[in-house]
Write a structure and sequence with these properties.
The protein is α+β, with helices and mostly antiparallel strands and 567 residues long. 20% of the residues lie in helices and 38% in strands.
Length: 567
């Protein structure tokens, strides 16, 4: 009985030991899924590497997982590699492994340390995505935003593709698998170091050679060997430069002078004209006041035109100095860009580097010429250019105008009525009344054509004169008479000394009547006439000659004696 029990217990103990050993071997030797294990390449076939990961397990990995971006896979039988065990056994009895995931796990560990220590990492750009590029960081894929590729926008990233270079990790999230890197941060850091070194060796006033790197509307950026300086368009030449491309080309080597260095911002201002002789040093001697020179119109503005006298020396012809006759006209209608013109030097301000020029001064004042060729009284003919409420403007030789005032339109009509007889464009004749050169005014007269008829007619007539007139019309208020072509009107009260004889109807058209001149009005061109005044004057004269108020003679006696004396 005892023997049977012993024989029965032996197999049980052996089984337990075997099971324990088996479990122990599984626990010790079987790798855990989701971990990185070492394996050995035993063969390469059909684009895959067959890898023995031990524990009598083999797996397959595509060869492309062993290649860096842009490179061929470098692997052969016998190589030892680390792979990621995704599954111990699949349906075919093989281990499911991945070299790429192993590299990723390894890379993440490495990148997290670099990120924590703010260290640079090495990678290669291998693809383009929306908003940037993809970068392989030794197994982990990162995103490189377009703004972080370079310090300046990159138009062609082709030369950067597949090139191993350093990057700075800006952000990473292992759980989400996101990594953002920057190439620009590396460049700026190295650039800042380089700039500091180059700037440290530069001094203001120093002359250096540089290469034109970029051209803009306001200037050009010149590379001084790792640091850029701005060459402003106004510092390229003493003359006016409309655009830097007129004198510079990208890639051209130029000699420049360091004008200013800002130690805080590391900005460098450069100049080219400072290396040339300043033409303004000789302006005063070469261009004395009043001298006339030929120049070229370089720019036209609303207030005038700039004329280049020589490269680097420009003067302004103000709009008021452009023409004698064209006043409120844009300068562009008088001169054109690049036109060669003669100008006179009016003023020089060396401190402000300004020259005031005159264009009209090179031509004679047309009012002076007109005054010389058309003295007062000269008859002229011209077109009615404009009609205003105070007169007519007549076009005259020399592209100038003369004015006929309302009062100079007619002797017989009011100016307001006479001006209605004229239309713009009419050709009219007039005589020159006055020329005021300083005020640039010419006064004309139409009514004085043929002379002053009134003055000629009444030349010998004065107040108190007795003249003979001809009755031309009979009206209720008096009679109209004419003397040497000049019309006048005698009122009813002036027709006779006797009230009973103050009747216009006692006169007939064509009658000759002796009248006394009571007034000569040159402005209204009227003669004041009176029959009554003549009769009173004659009576007074008769009394003085043939009697007195106390002689006792009657008026009839006196007048009778006077009449006899006349006979």
């Amino acid at each position: 009985m005892k023997k049977e029990n012993q024989s029965h217990m032996a197999p049980n103990n052996a089984m337990e030991e075997f099971e324990a050993l088996l479990n122990e071997s599984f626990e010790m030797d079987t790798p855990q899924e989701g971990s990185v294990v070492k394996g050995k390449v035993i063969a390469i076939e059909a684009g895959q590497a067959i890898i023995d990961v031990g524990y009598k397990m083999e797996g397959r990995v595509d060869l492309k997982e062993f290649a860096n971006p842009g490179e061929q896979p470098n692997i052969k039988p016998g190589d030892e590699v680390e792979v990621y065990l995704r599954q111990v056994e699949n349906a075919r009895g093989e281990a499911v492994i991945s070299r790429e995931m192993a590299r990723r796990e390894e890379a993440w560990d490495r990148l997290e340390k670099a990120y924590a220590n703010e260290e640079r990492v090495e990678g290669a750009i291998f693809g383009r995505v929306k908003g940037g590029f993809t970068v392989d960081l030794g197994g982990a894929v990162a995103f490189l935003p377009g703004s972080q590729v370079d310090v300046r926008p990159v138009r062609d990233a082709g030369p950067l593709m597949g090139l191993k270079q350093p990057f700075q990790v800006l952000k990473m999230d292992r759980r989400r698998g996101n990594i953002v890197v920057s190439r620009r941060a590396i460049l700026e850091e190295s650039r800042a170091e380089q700039r500091a070194e180059v700037i440290g060796n530069l001094t203001e006033g120093q002359t250096v050679d540089g290469v034109v790197k970029n051209i803009t509307e306001y200037g050009a950026f010149v590379d001084l060997g790792g640091v850029d300086g701005l060459l402003h368009v106004t510092d390229m030449a003493w003359r006016r430069v409309n655009h830097p491309s007129e004198i510079l080309q990208i890639g051209e080597t130029v000699k420049v002078q360091v004008i200013k260095i800002n130690k805080e911002t590391h900005r460098i201002s450069l100049g080219m004209k400072q290396l040339q002789e300043d033409p303004w040093d000789l302006v005063g001697a070469k261009y004395p006041l009043g001298s006339v020179h030929q120049g070229r119109v370089t720019n036209i503005t609303d207030y005038g035109a700039f004329v280049e006298l020589e490269p680097g020396v420009e003067g302004l012809v103000h709009v008021s100095e452009m023409s004698w006759t064209k006043k409120n006209v844009h300068p562009g209608k008088i001169v054109s860009t690049s036109q060669e013109v003669d100008v006179m030097v009016l003023e020089i301000d060396g401190a402000k580097r300004r020259v005031s020029l005159g264009l009209k001064q090179t031509m004679r004042n047309p009012w002076e010429v007109f005054a010389e060729t058309h003295p007062e009284g000269t008859e002229v003919e011209g077109e009615v250019k404009n009609i205003t409420e105070f007169g007519l403007f007549i076009g005259l030789p020399g592209d100038i105008d003369g004015m006929v005032h309302l009062s100079d339109l007619s002797w017989d009509e009011r100016g307001e009525d006479a001006i209605q007889n004229y239309r713009k464009g009419d050709m009219v004749k007039a005589v020159v009344s006055e020329v005021d050169i300083d005020k640039e005014r010419i006064s004309l007269s139409i009514k004085n054509l043929g002379g002053d008829k009134f003055a000629e007619a009444v030349g010998g007539v004065k107040r108190g004169s007795i003249i003979t007139v001809t009755v031309t019309a009979i009206e209720d208020g008096g009679i109209e008479v004419e003397y040497e072509g000049m019309k006048s009107f005698i009122r009813r009260s002036d027709l006779s000394r006797d009230r009973s004889e103050q009747r216009p109807e006692r006169f007939s058209k064509g009658d000759k009547v002796d009248v006394r001149v009571t007034n000569v009005d040159s402005k209204t061109r009227r003669l004041g006439l009176s029959i009554k005044a003549r009769e009173i004057a004659e009576e007074k004269e008769a009394v003085e000659q043939y009697g007195s108020s106390d002689s006792g003679a009657s008026l009839g006696d006196i007048l009778g004696a006077a009449l006899k004396g006349d006979r």
